[in-house]
Amino acid sequence: MPKKILIWFSLVIAILICSGLLLFAQEEPSIPKVETPSRPLLVNSYELNWLNPPAGVRKGARVALVHGIPASEPYAQFVKVPRGYAFKPHFHEQDESVLLLSGTVVVGFGDKIDQEKGTVLTSGAYGFIPAGKAHWAVAKTDAMFYQHVSGPASVTYVHPEDDPRNTAR
After folding, report:
1. For 35-67, what is each residue's pLDDT tens digit?
2. Does the reported pTM lie above 0.70?
3. DSSP for residue 12
4. Which end of the chain is more exposed for a tag (fewer CB within 10 A), N or C?
5. CB neighbours of 26 closer than 8 A, spacing ≥ 6?
6. Is residue 20's pLDDT more than 60?
7. Is 60 exposed, middle or buried (0-12, 13-18, 19+ CB in 10 A)?
8. CA distance 164 to 169
9. Could you tell me the pLDDT band of residue 6, with boundaries at 50, 70 and 90?
C-alpha cells in the first residue's frame, strides 16, 4: 500500500475514532426536575386553620389549606364534611388525589349520584381522579380527607344548577 494512501487511511480512522469519542462523551439529556418546596413543612392537626370553603364548594364543608396557592398553582388541603354532605357531580381541570382520614364516604363516577352503584370508602382509603373525570361523593358519617390537586383550583359542575356560585350562598 502506498505511503500516501496509508496516511489518508490512518487520518480517516483517527477522525472516526475521535468523532465516536465526542459523540459518546456528550452529556445525556436530563429528566425535567420537579420543583421542591424551599422549606420543609410539618403541620400538626391542632395547627390547622379551618375556614369556610371557596365559592365553588357547597356550604357546610370546612377546608384547611396546608400548601400551595389554589388560585395559581398545585395545592394541598384538608377537607371535613358533616354526615349527609354531598359533593354533586363535577370535574376538575387537574388531577386530584385524596386520602380519607376518617369517616365513611360513598364515591362514584358519572353525571348523577347513585349510591347503590358507588364505592364505599372508609378511613385509610385512597383515590386518584384524573382531570376531566366527572365524580361525586356523599358522606355517610362525618368525614375528613386530605386532598392534593395538581394545578390551580377549578371545579365544573355537570349540572349548572348544582353550582353554588349560581345561587345565593
Report:
1. 455 788 898 989 999 999 999 999 999 999 999
2. yes
3. H
4. N
5. none
6. no
7. middle
8. 7
9. low
Are the C-beta atoms of residues 157 and 88 closer than 8 Å to each other?
Answer: yes
Written as one string, the DSSP assignment of 36-105 is --SS-----GGG---BPPPTTS-BTBEEEEEEE-TTTS-EEEEEEE-TT-EEEEEE-SS-EEEEEEESEE
Q: What is the pLDDT of residues 139-153, one digit of tens each?
A: 999 999 999 999 999
Average pLDDT in the 32-36 region? 44
C-alpha distance from residue 46 to each of 22, 49, 58, 69, 124 (Å): 59, 8, 24, 21, 20
Q: What are phi and psi of 4, to 5 degrees?
A: -65, -45
Rounded Cα gap, residues 38 and 13, in angstroms? 52
All three cell numbers of 169: 350562598
CA–CA distance, 68 with 148 (Å, rounded to integer): 10
